[in-house]
Amino acid sequence: MTTVAAERTLTDRAESINAAAYWQLLVNLTRREVKGRYSQSLLGIGWAVAQPLAMMAVFTLVFSRLGNISADGVAYPLFAYAGLVPWFFFMNSVNSGTMSLVQYRNIVTKTYFPREIIPIAQVCARLLDFAAASSVFALLLIYYRVDVTRWTALAPMLFVLLVAFTTGVTLLTSAVNVFYRDVSPVVQIVLQLWLYVTPIAYPIAKVPERWRRWIAANPLSGIIEGLRSAIVYGREPDWPLLGVSAALSATVLIGAFVLFKRLDKYFADVI
Amino acid sequence: MSSRGTAIRLERVSKRYRAGRSRTVVDLIASTVDSLRGRERDVYSAARGRIDSTIWAIREASFDIAEGAGVGIIGSNGAGKTTLLKLISRVTWPTSGRVLVAGRVVSLIELGAGFHPELTGRENVYLGGGLFGLTRRDIDRRFDEIVQFAEVERLIDTPMKRYSSGLYARLGFSVAIHSNPDIVLVDEVLAVGDAAFRRRALESLRRMIAGGKTVLFISHDMWNVRRLCERIIWMDEGRMRAIGPSAEIADQYMEQVNLRALANQQNALQSHRGGTGELRYTDVEIVDASGRPTAIVRDGGPLTVRAAYDAGVAVAAPVFQVAIVDVDTGLVVGTAASSPADVPPVVEGPGVLECIFDPLPLRRRHYVLRMTITDSCQLVSYDVVSAGPRFAVTGGGPADCAGDEEDGFVTLPFRFEHRARVLS
């Protein structure tokens, strides 16, 4: 939170513009991202809803009807959709975030500003999608007559965890992608596999005991399981699982941010 | 501004870039194997040539720039001028040495770099303003001023993809200079935009300097550099070749550029050639008093153009013409045409003709010769050399005292006469 010093002094540090202006930049870049994505598109923001809904239909057919996976007492479509909304927020953020610094190379190589604003704006732009998909989720909750419980109050905290972890991964992949463009295809593949090692189509309870701790080491497991128990089931979350998620998410976010700030001096040279 | 502090200080700054292609996995494996076998780690990969070669864009640059100074940066392409601005604006960081800056920097390395073509001019003003550190409220307050300066009122709610490149740049420039910076870095961006805007942009930069802002200005246009800047830094292949008063350094630089151009003039006549070809110039040079080729003419001194020609067939009553063209503006500042008395009635084979302007009443600028040979009615052009030798008019007479001596193209004869005021 530096403000413009009344007395100007020579410094070899970069920050000298106030935080309000950078906040403004984040808002503007987010807006630019959203507008750019939905301009000249018929369905517009509808795509943010279509994506998880379509996947929900596929999952319902494959896992529930053919694979006979039960959702522990709630309707399977609701169960799947509850996992798919945070999943697509994560996946889309990381996907577009990875290429973001490269995409914005013309401002990265020509003006100074804290570079992390660019990938963070990508995450922020996906928040809008998340909100749209969540409103459909609310409709589903009403349709399936799910009651609000005191555990529902946990949802905002879980949401913060989701955003923290997503931001961490996005910072990491976007920074490394500046140096090695291989990151982008690798991320695509990893994300495809990641969907299936996260308890989205199935509850973690259905995972055989010996594999369960590997699934638990995935921070998204605790977040998605937690969101489901808080909203869909209305029961106490699996605290140890959630604790692991929280610790890992915080570590990833901090670690990624530190690495990002180390690397960002070289962005303009190699991008 | 009571006392002038230091706005920018470079301490032995060097910047190295990696040239060539980047490493691939194959190279990584190769270098790992090499290092495991204890070999030199400088990375060659057998089939694909050397990688990891480096280029020093800046070497050991040190200077101080005072607050409120206008400083020009000149030098040929690739001399490190833009890298210097990028270092000062923190876009990139030095490999060694320190770059110290006091206050807020705005860099105009590319105008409108942050704009998005899908968004309207209005939205982009807010987007671009954010890049320069302006908050929404700051921009609200200055919005009209920004739009007026760029003269885009009519198109402000149109997506910027419909803007011409000149308009795009104008809005970019306007947003940047209205962001209230302490230090402005300008990189040859005024080349876009029309003459009126260029003049306004230069005028606004001049006002900023007068108002205590520091302006660093890269340009190849010595004319503007000299008018805007009190000092000049001359970069040459990454090193600071000279730093000093504008007039002095600009003259040194132009002298070098001209000498270099002279060395390259061997084939100059081959290009930009028109005409029917019965009679052609074979060699055109500017010579000094002792008959040696030169590219520099002292102001007030004579200009001698020596033209060798060759007529393949007999040509009757040719007219040889020399036009002096101002390099910056392309304006023809003067012409000379031979009269029938100057040349034989019929020319055939080779010959040499000299055209002497004495005195040459031209101001200190850069000129290029346009040479033609036509028939006596000027209907047929035998030869057209649109870009002949270049020359610079430089000082040499009494020391400068008038700062604006370069205003205009020609030195006109004049006198002032003073009379006591008489009421009529």
Secondary-structure blueprint of this entry?
The complex is a heterodimer of chains A (271) and B (424).
Chain A: H1 19-38, H2 46-66, H3 76-103, H4 105-108, H5 117-143, H6 155-179, H7 183-194, H8 209-216, H9 219-233, H10 239-263, H11 267-270
Chain B: E1 6-18, H1 25-36, E2 44-45, E3 49-50, E4 54-66, E5 70-74, H2 81-88, E6 96-101, E7 105-108, H3 121-131, H4 136-150, H5 165-177, E8 183-187, H6 195-210, E9 214-218, H7 222-228, E10 231-236, E11 239-245, H8 246-263, E12 273-274, E13 279-287, E14 296-298, E15 303-316, E16 319-326, E17 332-337, E18 346-357, E19 366-374, E20 381-385, E21 390-394
Parallel strand pairs in B: 5-9, 5-10, 7-8, 8-9, 14-21
Antiparallel strand pairs in B: 1-4, 1-6, 2-3, 10-11, 12-20, 13-15, 15-18, 16-17, 16-19, 19-20, 19-21
Helix pairs in contact in B: 3-4, 3-5, 4-5
What does this structure look like?
The complex is a heterodimer of chains A (271) and B (424). Chain A is mostly helical and 271 residues long. Chain A has one domain. Chain A contains eleven helices and no strands. In chain A, helix 3 runs antiparallel to helix 7 and helix 6 runs antiparallel to helix 9. Chain A starts with 18 loop residues before the first helix and ends with a helix. The N terminus of chain A is likely disordered. By secondary structure, chain B is an alpha+beta fold. Chain B folds into two domains: 211 residues, 3-Layer(aba) Sandwich (Rossmann fold); 127 residues, abc- transporter (atp binding component) like domain (Coagulation Factor XIII, Chain A, domain 1). Chain B is built from eight helices and 21 strands. In chain B, the strands form five sheets. In chain B, strands 12, 14, 16, 17, 19, 20 and 21 form a seven-stranded mixed β-sheet that branches. In chain B, strand 19 and strand 20 form a beta hairpin. Chain B starts with 5 loop residues before the first strand and ends in a 30-residue tail after the last strand. About 4% of the residues of chain B have low confidence. Classes of the chains: A mainly alpha (271), B alpha+beta (424).
